Amino acid sequence: MKAIETKQLRKSYGKTEIVKGISLTVEQGEIFGFLGRNGAGKSTFINMLTGIIHPTSGSFSLLGMEGGDNMAKKYIGVMPDYANLYGSLTAMAHLKYFSALSGKPAAKAVCMEVLQQVGLDEHYNKKTAKFSFGMKKKLGIAQAIIHDPELVFLDEPTSGLDAESVLHIQRLIRDLQKRGKTIFMTSHNLNEVEKLCTRIAILKEGRIVQSGSMDELRAAFRSTINVNIKHSPIPASQQESLHQWLEEAGSNLELNDGEITITVESEQKISEMIRAFQQCRVEIYRVHVKEPSLEDIFLEL
Ligand SMILES: Nc1ncnc2c1ncn2[C@@H]1O[C@H](COP(=O)(O)OP(=O)(O)O)[C@@H](O)[C@H]1O
Ligand SMILES: [Mg+2]
Hints:
301 residues; Alpha-Beta Plaits; binds adenosine-5'-diphosphate
């Protein structure tokens, strides 16, 4: 049974299509990261899965159950991108209320335990009107997990939090996974998904432009290596043949005095290139190799 399966899920507002046909699968026990810039459509996508909005077309299932109005809320926890709180209720009252709504009312001791997990136990009796942004966010997470759901949706769980709270929440997410839960989270923070997630999908303008495990993504982009070589003057008699060789060896070739920059597709090409230089009696002073960081990958996409 898959935790999440979507087929060609789409959402339009008027004539504007925001989510453009997303099909993805999330296995149980994964921390799946949905990565994209602001406005990419992350919240719109997650809100369809959690029943906050209706898809324009397409279908999905959660934990093997057809998604839609009669979704089994008992097994699903949701932290939307807005704080869904009543200012006159205390943190404790919120958890009692939302656990009851999910069909699994939690005892006070359980609420306390979850408040402690998110780092709010000292504020259990405080009304949420007095909560800071970060505290509201933490209560949103507590509310999402209070009924011990199997599948948890977290929309930007750490954005806007201070560094210590971010680490705290990341640890909590990992602990959930250790207990066998599935987490689907959105983030615009690459480092975060790199650290936490088993698999990620990168969303751009409503489409998935890349997905896979972190290693798969790296491998896909390792195929381009930027090389800069500083060298002694190329003998005039060798210039043409060397230039021709370089043209064929890679792309984005730039030739300057005593320096070339080129993009190649494998490490082997680098050693071939060094050999080609040597055969033309050109001395190599320095080789600088730059592989794309994940930040580069993200920006490029
Ligand atoms: N209810 C709505 N009506 C019209 N446009 C919307 C609505 N909700 C979101 N959008 C638009 O959809 C795009 C994606 O928004 P959103 O899913 O919130 O992105 P993200 O969560 O990735 O930052 C944005 O351009 C936003 O303005
Ligand atoms: Mg969002």
